[in-house]
């Protein structure tokens, strides 16, 4: 369980780093997003894509059959059944602009208390769990992942 847990937490972290690096490489107008493969369910895996919709593709990963103009960069398969993810409904996508900053979309910003016309920094956390072990991955401004192992709180 420990190896699977560490591996999947590392895969998610690598996907975030890939999305951030790709957004920086593509420039100021790029938006690269990572979303769960099933709406708000990270256990189904995740997809990194160049977001042509500018709204995290509605919070749902594009598929090769319906990319909606998005360019798919990476698709991760579903997690093993013993590995669970608790997002606490705080992190349903991660989106980067060309500067490498993780931001909420203007539409989501008003619900998050940010100026709805400008968006704001995205923050949130995911807890990967297997048995009695866990990994807390916190997305902190401007878009970096912080890892905590077996902590009581993951907020």
Q: In words, what does this structure look like?
A:
The chain has 155 residues and is of the alpha+beta class. 21% of the residues lie in helices and 36% in strands. The chain has 2 helices and 10 strands, in the order H-E-E-E-E-E-E-H-E-E-E-E. Strand 1 (31-38) and strand 2 form a beta hairpin. The model is unreliable at 109-118 (pLDDT under 50).
Helical residue percent band: 10-25%
Structural class: alpha+beta
Strand order of the largest sheet: 3-2-1-5
**Shape, per Cα inertia axes:** globular
Largest sheet: 4 strands, antiparallel
Task: Report the portion of residues in β strands.
Answer: 35-45%
- SSE order, one letter for each helix or strand: HEEEEEEHEEEE
Q: Which residue ranges are poorly predicted, with pLDDT under 50 across at least 5 consecutive positions?
A: 109-118
Arithmetic mean of pLDDT: 78
Q: If you compute it from the alpha carbons, what radius of gyration comes out, rounded to the nearest whole angstrom?
A: 15 Å
Q: How many H/I helical runs?
A: 2
**Span of the ends, CA to CA:** 23 Å
The overall strand count is 10
């Amino acid at each position: 369980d420990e190896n699977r847990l560490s591996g999947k937490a590392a895969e998610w972290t690598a996907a975030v780093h890939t999305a951030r690096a790709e957004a920086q490489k593509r420039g100021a107008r790029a938006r690269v997003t990572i979303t769960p493969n099933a709406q708000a369910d990270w256990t189904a895996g995740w997809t990194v894509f160049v977001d042509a919709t500018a709204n995290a593709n509605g919070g749902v990963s594009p598929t090769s059959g319906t990319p909606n103009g998005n360019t798919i960069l990476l698709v991760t398969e579903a997690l093993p059944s013993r590995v669970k993810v608790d997002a606490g409904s705080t992190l349903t996508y991660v989106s980067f602009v060309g500067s490498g900053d993780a931001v909420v979309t203007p539409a989501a910003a008003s619900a998050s208390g940010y100026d709805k016309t400008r968006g704001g920094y995205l923050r949130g956390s995911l807890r990967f769990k297997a048995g009695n072990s866990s990994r807390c991955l916190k997305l902190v401004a401007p878009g970096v992942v912080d890892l905590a192992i077996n902590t009581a709180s993951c907020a």
